[in-house]
Amino acid sequence: MQIEKYQGVIPAFYACYEENGTVSRDRARKLARHLVSKGVRGLYVGGSSGECIYQEKEERMALLEAVMEEVRGECTVIAHVACNNTNESRQLAAHAESLGVDAIASIPPIYFHLPPHAIAKYWNDISDAAPNTDFIIYNIPQLAGVALTPDLFREMRKNPRVIGVKNSSMPTYDIEIFLREGGEDCVVFNGPDEQFVAGRCCGATGGIGGTYGAMPELFLKMDRLIREGHPEQAIPLQHEANAIIEEMCGCHGSMYAVIKAILRINEGLELGSVRAPMPELIPEDMPKVEAAAEHIRQAVSRL
Q1: Which sequence positions are flagged as catalytic?
Q2: pTM higher than the cut 0.85
């Protein structure tokens, strides 16, 4: 396991659609090329930012195929493969391995609150479908309804393919806990974008985040300052990014609809809207979207 390839800034990849709402392989390729050209370490495909919960299995496969066709070998690619049933999750895992991804990831099963042994079996069954691929647990208790515990993580580490955690719980202390439980070869990613600097200072090897793609330059600069031993210089950039995130979350439309509009304004990328039932932008949102886009441009110009 090469820990180095799981370090740094890894944007959570956005779902890309045509104007009629079907997934767009062409737009996915353009987004992947755009992000890699910015210098990010990798891409996290098919997670929350990818609207995976609202997509069909075949759509998720198509988007991952497009990303791998465009940037395979140029960056680390982690494919989130969880569905709310084991069979389709295993199909996605096997498909991801066939494409040569670096790792697969999975949230726990949602809705029913399953006991830890059932969650462990779900994850191990998925991992068994991709026997030559690293596995990352996606801990996001505020959405999944169940939290990764130290005991469950200890059990999962018996699987040699389980290399670590994408930790999207808010307490940064959880990062320390999972690093301690996982040992020296464990990888823990900071999840909440608003605490990128704090998470990295607590030991996170890198970050996977849903707003990185809208302003990769800010997070790349934060990461560089931390690696160079100047985290205090990264704090003002974190505050600026957080102000932008608050602006993006202040619309009627989903944050991901806002981000896609920002990428159209700032980068000329057409990514479509969002998948129902996520709310689309409304005309009243546009002044706020344009203000957030301008805020990003100004922040990047000052780097």
Answers
A1: 138, 166
A2: yes
- Across residues 207-231, what is the average pLDDT? 98
Nearest to 267, CA basis, from 245, 243, 303, 297: 297
The residue among 275, 147, 256, 149 whose CA lies nearest residue 212 is 256
Measuring CA to CA, which residue among 82, 18, 77, 22 is closest to residue 48?
A: 82
- Range of lowest pLDDT (20-24, 158-162, 182-186): 182-186
Cβ atoms of 281 and 252 closer than 8 Å: yes
Task: Strand 206-209: give its sheet, edge to edge.
Answer: 8-11, 206-209, 187-190, 162-167, 134-139, 103-106, 76-80, 42-45
pLDDT at 1: 53
DSSP letters, the chain, are --GGGG-EEEEBPPP-B-TTSSB-HHHHHHHHHHHHHTT-SEEEESSTTTTGGGS-HHHHHHHHHHHHHHHBTTBEEEEE---SSHHHHHHHHHHHHHHT-SEEEEPPP-SS---HHHHHHHHHHHHHTSTTSEEEEEE-HHHHS----HHHHHHHTTSTTEEEEEE-SS-THHHHHHHHHH-TT-EEEE--GGGHHHHHHTT-SEEEESSGGGSHHHHHHHHHHHHTT-HHHHHHHHHHHHHHHHHHTSSSS-HHHHHHHHHHHHH--------TTSPPP-GGGHHHHHHHHHHHHHHHHT-
- Residue 157 identity: R
Residue range 42-91, pLDDT digits in tens: 999 999 999 999 999 999 999 999 999 999 999 999 999 999 999 999 99
